[in-house]
Annexin (Homo sapiens), 673 residues
Amino acid sequence: MAKPAQGAKYRGSIHDFPGFDPNQDAEALYTAMKGFGSDKEAILDIITSRSNRQRQEVCQSYKSLYGKDLIADLKYELTGKFERLIVGLMRPPAYCDAKEIKDAISGIGTDEKCLIEILASRTNEQMHQLVAAYKDAYERDLEADIIGDTSGHFQKMLVVLLQGTREEDDVVSEDLVQQDVQDLYEAGELKWGTDEAQFIYILGNRSKQHLRLVFDEYLKTTGKPIEASIRGELSGDFEKLMLAVVKCIRSTPEYFAERLFKAMKGLGTRDNTLIRIMVSRSELDMLDIREIFRTKYEKSLYSMIKNDTSGEYKKTLLKLSGGDDDAAGQFFPEAAQVAYQMWELSAVARVELKGTVRPANDFNPDADAKALRKAMKGLGTDEDTIIDIITHRSNVQRQQIRQTFKSHFGRDLMTDLKSEISGDLARLILGLMMPPAHYDAKQLKKAMEGAGTDEKALIEILATRTNAEIRAINEAYKEDYHKSLEDALSSDTSGHFRRILISLATGHREEGGENLDQAQEDAQVAAEILEIADTPSGDKTSLETRFMTILCTRSYPHLRRVFQEFIKMTNYDVEHTIKKEMSGDVRDAFVAIVQSVKNKPLFFADKLYKSMKGAGTDEKTLTRIMVSRSEIDLLNIRREFIEKYDKSLHQAIEGDTSGDFLKALLALCGGED
């Protein structure tokens, strides 16, 4: 069994069995496989309750007692996925990895995902054991076999990783960090083409601690995470391998949590991936993986396995997962710390926000106005021209076109567009033609008019706009509808939800930095109102008001510090605690504020994904976000989308919309990632 580093806490889900007797286990397994049929319950119960070291002793005892090979007997008695899982558990870890790699490169085609997963995630010691096990099991050289089955830069990086020579010194040179940042920047972003050798050398050899600092400095220096540069500069399996290396450097458990989620999401299950990870991590970091899984995907690993598998196969996987973590309905303390670490860097670093729509070069409003008039004149409408012009001009330029159109033709461009196009395309194009504040004002008005209220739209807009944007929306609302936004919100909402929206709609959020003493006090208020403080004080009504004030008026940098202090104080993540302790529109509003503070582009990426997920498309949400973020941070949203959902925003839109609406959305999207 792999032992944790000195002083580290063991985080595997499988432990040494107390009172272990290998002869007794060997006899029980023999009995379970004797005669007609086999007692699968007894087999899985014994094997999942013993550590790998103990299983090897059982194998030896079995051979001594019966002169038979236990693994061969298990293969004979069991079938399918259950057999693969049990046999995987019976092999020593290095031999299990060796078998996976041998299968990945045998026969026609190569399972590159398997190669990437194993070679990107193993430590130096594990890599050395793997090479030796492969040689012992197959009498072949692993490096030679990988070279024979792969090519190019992908092959070179695999070979580098296979050496198991990554530096392990925790002492980091600041000068070398800066030099590596510069070398990576010059090898990619600043170079015509890419110097892949620099990426291979630095990412394949530097220590984890060193590379984490390199990634931090790279973000500060270039305004983009290293992952974005890798996606922009590399391609194919080489790109996937380098991204996997970066993920494992940042957090190996998070990498495996993501792999497990993708193995089970959607139709069908990638059982080979599921088996490989559950076996290989069960005595290393399975408890960390399941905590991150729950935090990141808002469901437990246990419940997802339970819903996605069946029979003895399911029972075995559930035991390997460490048991039912849904039973108590509680969040894990370690998961809260991981939750913070997962977004702390992006929150603190000054990431440059970029839209996908920029001012057109050589802009000529006169020519654009004439082209639009021609596109709408006579029989039929040239939608392609309309889409091309409007999606490739900034909002300021579109306002100039509107003015020029009226000066030239004595006609209102918006009115003409309304009469020529319809449906989803009309809502998108007309939205783009409106000044941003007037567009948001209109979306708020529509959310409150008629029967029922679109609370989600109210929350999305008011929880994410800056003070300047909120003030502009208030002015636009008054100008367009002759009523204050505050009065409209007061008439259409009620209770705590109304108070939250009105507070946000004042646009009085503080804009300074963090105050540690105040942050600790604010975190205490949050802990008390969320009922997890050790010593609650004050009446609840007063605490509710203070909590609302904190979330609605404190600056983003300060709130990030509050969230960190909350974790230190309670061992809980504030977002998940709000979801657990609160309900309804109040909960949704507070969660939106917290998510926006943590990572606003990710908040919008999630909204876009949900608008296109499942049967039917929420075109209103899709249109609203694509219009409102196209000149602000849609490029950042695209990056978060592909990072979280393993598909590009371009692909999602392409698969979920059609016709001219699709063309316009793809143009706003700014191309394929």
